[in-house]
Write a structure and sequence with these properties.
Elements: H1 2-33, H2 37-64, H3 69-96, H4 101-134, H5 138-191, H6 197-222, E1 227-232, E2 237-243, E3 246-251, E4 254-260, H7 269-274, E5 286-290, H8 296-303, E6 307-311, H9 315-324, E7 333-335, H10 339-345, E8 350-358, H11 370-379, E9 380-392, H12 398-408, E10 413-418, E11 427-434, H13 456-470, H14 490-512
Helix pairs in contact: 1-2, 1-4, 1-5, 2-4, 3-4, 3-5, 3-6, 5-6
Length: 516
Amino acid sequence: MAKNNYTYFIMAISGVVIPALEIVGIRSLGPYYGISLYLGAVLVTITLAALSTGYLIGGRWADKNPQMEIISYSLIIVGILIILIPLLRNPILYVIEPLGIQLTLFIGASLLLFPSFMLIGAIELFVIKVVINNSPSIGKSIGGLLATLTLASIIGVLVTLFLLIPYLGIEKSAISLGLLLCAIGIIPLLFKKVLSMKLSILILLIVSSVAGLTWHSTINAETPDKLVFKMQSPDSEISIVDQDIQRMLIVNGNLQATINKETLDSMHPHVVVMNTIQYCFRRPGKGLLIGLGAGSISKNFTAAGWRMDAVERDPGIVKVAQRYFDVQPGDCRMHVVNGREFLMNTNDKYNLIVINDLGCSPFASQLITSEACDLISARLDSNGVLAINVLTNGWHSKIVRHMAATLGRHFTNVKALPLHEPPTILGNVILLAANRELTFPEEWLGNPKDYVDIDPYEHWVALQQNHAWDNQFMPDTSEVAVIADDLNRSDIWLESINYQAWDKLHAYFTEKGLSW
């Protein structure tokens, strides 16, 4: 009976560890290369391949020597491997990074996670073999084991996402998980006197030393001179990095915002170009910002007399924006909810809706489908304007043309404001859509020459605004399909663009002497 209970306990531990380790893998690699479809697919592939390999190995072990002690030793090894993940991650990625992002992700994830998943698979098969050998009701016993495994996996997901990661962080969550497995493996060996006290103490000392070294290295990694703050929220890893006078907000490996930390002025062109949309209105109105970022867009419009609502699904970003980017309660009325969910449930009407997180959030693609445009149209008044900031690999890229085609189904006037030169490189484009003309006297933008010797920042602002407005164009939507919920490939296009952004960000940090 005791052996039977122990096998169920081990299967439950296995169920908890598998999803916890997957989440740790995603969140460990995400800040380096972004949380993407490719990363998710790689980890699922590695998990399944490793488990299947483990099942083969575990089956052979169990047939040759079905002793429970093998499970204990395997748990100790898995625990040590998991503890080593934070310690080995940076060196491994540094060595293989020249291979390119996609290959680096696959090889790095394989080296870090495959051995642990393989041993977990072997343990599961070994447990099943032991139960079969000791149970007269094989079907009932196996069914109970699989049910235990599945229920424990659910618990593993919830505990990892809502307890371990938010309160301990990724590295310390991995260490804690590894120490737990080592303890579970060592204790039965001590009770059975299979493992001598001296040897068990030696193992504990080795494991504790590795864990301590890893724990110490992660603490140091979180507090270098330039890394002001880092946190884990249920959705994201959020970092604040200071470099010279710049303060950068980095979410899951994506650079979301940059400000001058002394003046709090935004240093992102799309933020200052967004300000020109105000000139299309006779007077300030009511606006909705989806994707808070550092809050600069909302603050600028509020300063001009607008009443702003802001929607941000990640409470961690809201806290960071308030603490490190001086977002005040008066800057906007905050809604911590998914953007599309907010559009479905609100009855408010807006003069302006700004979608700011396209390309940074894994949920952003659901905001640019035809069905989402229906919701947006219903929330705009008759003279309302929709503005979407999108990161793109050229003015006339696929994502810009498909988005313009989709917007054209719902609005009579669609135009693009490009923010970068030359037109074929990575940069931002702001798409505007409305059922009216979007014009104003161009002298309202100001002449950059007037600020050359007076205010360098205002000179830069005037340059960005004039460049975007002077180069506005109607995207070519001929032979381009509309983006729909049923067939939405925009997340794939956005991901390919993000790869270029991640490469660029890596190069920037390397040049500035900052380490990931």
